[in-house]
């Protein structure tokens, strides 16, 4: 599995693991790396079956598989304690990791994540599956942008977005793998385990998220014993990209609160 370890500029730094959403790409976090790597060792990775981590995923592929894969990677790097930041699908991986290995996690940040399927998000993924079956990767990525970003952000950043889409095309995942990943996140349900969570958690949501209703984050924060909710009015589904300064400031505040000196 492809990964990068960015060393911190200070000694004895805590480790932050960044896990992206459905696309699975380490590049998703490029606007966070400079801000984080001053005080933290940062690990990013291309999830198995995406980008630079080619693999044939099994038909029964699940969030549990993804948690196991990340756990093995962290063990190979001798990481026994870290902060975990997950966006959407990455947040589900973090929640599974919190069940499997709670002692590994200093804190969790869950961005536009959810604890069980909801009708709106499932419809969005059904549309994605239909596009994968009948259209080009270019059309899939254009549709994805409508779910990730606010309309005005697209208008004001169209050149940048088109460059990012060209990069995504060069590393576009195998269709079978992408369908398996959509199936995995569509079936994820850990409602019965939420009360068992004791990892300090920040839940982040955006009211203008077109993919995941912000109320799902509110529900999640209310159910987790050690969670707080930060709710933004603007940013869409990918606020780490659309409002990086605001997002990075919040992230650094959260990590500082739970880092060991």
Automatic annotation (TrEMBL):
Uppermost EC category: hydrolase
Gene Ontology terms describing biological process: nitrogen utilization; uracil catabolic process
Enzyme Commission numbers on file: 3.5.1.-
MF (Gene Ontology): hydrolase activity, acting on carbon-nitrogen (but not peptide) bonds, in linear amides
Catalytic activity: carbamate + 2 H(+) = NH4(+) + CO2
Domain AB hydrolase-1 intervals: 15-125
The entry's keywords: Hydrolase
Pfam families cross-referenced by the UniProt entry: Abhydrolase_1
Function: Involved in pyrimidine catabolism. May facilitate the hydrolysis of carbamate, a reaction that can also occur spontaneously.
PANTHER family: AB HYDROLASE-1 DOMAIN-CONTAINING PROTEIN, HYDROLASE, ALPHA/BETA FOLD FAMILY PROTEIN
Family designation: Belongs to the AB hydrolase superfamily. Hydrolase RutD family.
Protein name per the record: Putative carbamate hydrolase RutD
């Amino acid at each position: 599995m492809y990964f990068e370890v960015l060393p911190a500029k200070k000694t004895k730094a805590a480790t932050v693991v960044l896990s992206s959403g459905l696309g699975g790409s380490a590049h998703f976090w490029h606007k966070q790396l400079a801000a984080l790597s001053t005080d933290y060792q940062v690990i990013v990775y291309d999830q198995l079956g995406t980008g630079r981590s080619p693999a044939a995923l099994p038909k029964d592929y699940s969030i549990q598989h993804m948690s196991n894969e990340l756990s093995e990677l962290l063990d190979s790097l001798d990481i026994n304690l870290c902060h975990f930041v997950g966006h959407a699908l990455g947040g589900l991986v973090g929640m599974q990791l919190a069940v499997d290995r709670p002692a590994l996690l200093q804190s969790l940040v869950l961005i536009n994540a959810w604890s069980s399927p909801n009708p709106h998000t499932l419809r969005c993924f059904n549309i994605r599956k239909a596009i994968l079956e009948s259209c080009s990767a270019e059309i899939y990525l254009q549709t994805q942008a409508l779910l990730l970003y606010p309309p005005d952000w697209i208008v004001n950043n169209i050149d940048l977005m088109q460059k990012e889409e060209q990069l995504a095309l060069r590393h576009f995942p195998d269709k079978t793998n992408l369908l398996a990943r959509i199936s995995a996140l569509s079936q994820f349900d850990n409602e019965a385990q939420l009360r068992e969570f004791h990892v300090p958690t920040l839940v982040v949501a955006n009211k203008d998220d077109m993919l995941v209703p912000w109320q799902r984050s509110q529900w999640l924060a209310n159910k987790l014993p050690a969670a707080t909710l930060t709710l933004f009015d603007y940013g869409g589904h990918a606020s780490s990209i659309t409002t990086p300064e605001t997002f990075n400031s919040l992230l650094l505040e959260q990590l500082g609160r739970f880092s060991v000196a």
